[in-house]
Amino acid sequence: MSNFQKPSIELIEPNWPAPKNVKAFFTSRNGGVSAGAYGGVDGFNGLNLGKHVGDSPYCVRKNREIVESLGCKDLRFLNQVHSSRVLEADEIISDAEDADASFTTKSNVGCVVMTADCLPILLCSKDGEIVCACHAGWKGLAAGVIQESVRKMRERLSSSAVEIMAWIGPCLDVENFVVQQDVKDIFFRSELAPFADKYFISDPKGFLLNFSGLASETLKLAGVNEVYDSGLSTYSDPARFYSYRRDKVTGRHGAVIYKQ
């Protein structure tokens, strides 16, 4: 008799007071069928959701089915390109659609973004009418993906006064996010210029970027008054999270949000 046990799925749930009809979670690296660099910390049972990282297509498909079984069977994945392009979920015909955020007002349609250090940001209106998933790498953050996500949500509801809350999921922590002057210069040429400087901390290797801090203030300046940060580091917790900066070849997590 085999003692094999199905690996458990560890989900990170947002620490926010979202409406009861809004469901959201962030997947860890554990609980799937991927192996090797895409596996868990022991090299097995990884829940990699990224098709583009070199993992077996069969494993990725199975992992996505596992995530769908958690509650929403209509998940809309994107081909993320570090842009500010934001789509309504109905516009996503396949996961080859280039964009870095999606939103919907429909029930049981899941907006998904994948990350392995970048900022996963989940948003919803306080009345539960609209939800959005946003992928913000530093390039997308500088390009305005946060502002565009908020703008599209308000445009869809035909209200500039809609109250929105946001959750920032596990991402690269400031101690391990080393960037150079060229990255700082890009931010200083963007609309984030008035306040970005304080999030670049001088370091012998260049600058340390306080990624989540910069995103949090960007959200608030876009009119998102309630911002909740998981405070979790992908780089510093290899038992639970993939990290591109740490491992280079690695899997991708999913940040999922939908309304019932």
How does this structure look, described?
The protein is built from seven helices and 15 strands. Helix content is 22%, strand content 26%. The protein starts with 10 loop residues before the first strand and ends with a strand. It has helices at 57-68, 138-143, 145-157, 181-188, 193-196, 211-221, 244-247, and strands spanning 11-12, 22-27, 30-34, 75-76, 86-88, 101-104, 110-115, 119-125, 131-136, 164-168, 178-179, 200-203, 206-209, 226-229, 253-259. With 260 residues, the protein is α+β, with helices and mostly antiparallel strands. The longest helix has 13 residues, at 145-157. Strands 5-6-9-8-10-14 form a six-stranded mixed β-sheet. It has a single domain (11-172, 223-259), classed as CNF1/YfiH-like putative cysteine hydrolases. Mean pLDDT is 95; it is low at 1-5.
Q: Strand arrangement, largest sheet?
A: 5-6-9-8-10-14
In total, how many beta strands? 15
Q: Helices and strands, in N-to-C order?
A: EEEHEEEEEEHHEEHHEEHEHE
* Biggest sheet architecture: 6 strands, mixed
Which whole number gives the mean pLDDT? Answer: 95
Named CATH topology: CNF1/YfiH-like putative cysteine hydrolases
CA gyration radius, whole angstroms: 18 Å
User: Separation of termini?
Assistant: 41 Å
CATH-level-2 architecture: 4-Layer Sandwich
The coarse overall form would be globular
